[in-house]
């Protein structure tokens, strides 16, 4: 990850033994390792059981970390949830091998991976809901930045499809990217509530047909 302020609006500064996860300090291995251990435990816990309105203290008890130790590394519940999800996404990005070249295909691949981790999908849905409330400033900054970065990524895929005459040139790439994200997020919430009735990947695949194809190269319009 980049140091300083990332493209998603978040900070990735150095971490110290007494200020792990906070910016403006040198990095010490012991503090970094301990913070990562806490994040790993939190991710595993969220993957198994999801996340509810539990306090930072309750989360600490669930993962075997005292409230004092947890506050040593994370200033709030919001910060822990955001950093846990960020760490999960970083890990998933490192392990995933994208096959599809299309924007929709990229999201479908992610949805298929998410089938095995409903608890982390629930965590993302919780973060998205919290981001609408001003008192969750850390979460709002993360989700807003994530949406911006994802729109940019998907819009680039859509533009590439237009250049290859696979997608009509009069479709705005950013608008289309926002539509794909909205469909994915909404379908995942429906899937969490009724997994037997909703297939996120299959439903998303319909979007591929909603983007009209351009003319074949060399074919008169």
What does this structure look like?
The chain is an all-alpha fold and 221 residues long. The protein has two domains: 76 residues, Arc Repressor Mutant, subunit A, CATH 1.10.10; 126 residues, Orthogonal Bundle (Tetracycline Repressor, domain 2). 62% of the residues lie in helices and 0% in strands. It is built from nine helices and no strands. Helix 2 packs across helix 3, helix 4 packs across helix 6 and helix 8 packs antiparallel against helix 9. The N and C termini lie far apart (45 Å). The N terminus and C terminus are likely disordered.
Low-confidence stretches at least 5 residues in length (pLDDT < 50)?
Answer: 1-25, 215-221
CATH topology of the largest domain, anyone? Tetracycline Repressor, domain 2
Structural class given helices, strands, pairing? mainly alpha
SSE pattern:
HHHHHHHHH
* N- to C-terminal distance: 45 Å
**% residues in beta strands:** under 5%
Top-tier CATH class of the largest domain: Mainly Alpha
Question: Any idea how many domains?
Answer: 2
Figure out the total of helices: 9
Output mean pLDDT.
Answer: 83
**CATH architecture label name of the largest domain:** Orthogonal Bundle
Radius of gyration, in Å, reads: 20 Å
Please specify the SSE layout and strand pairing.
Layout: H1 29-49, H2 56-62, H3 67-73, H4 77-95, H5 103-114, H6 118-130, H7 137-163, H8 173-193, H9 200-210
What is the gist of this entry?
With 221 residues, this protein is mainly α. 62% of the residues lie in helices and 0% in strands.
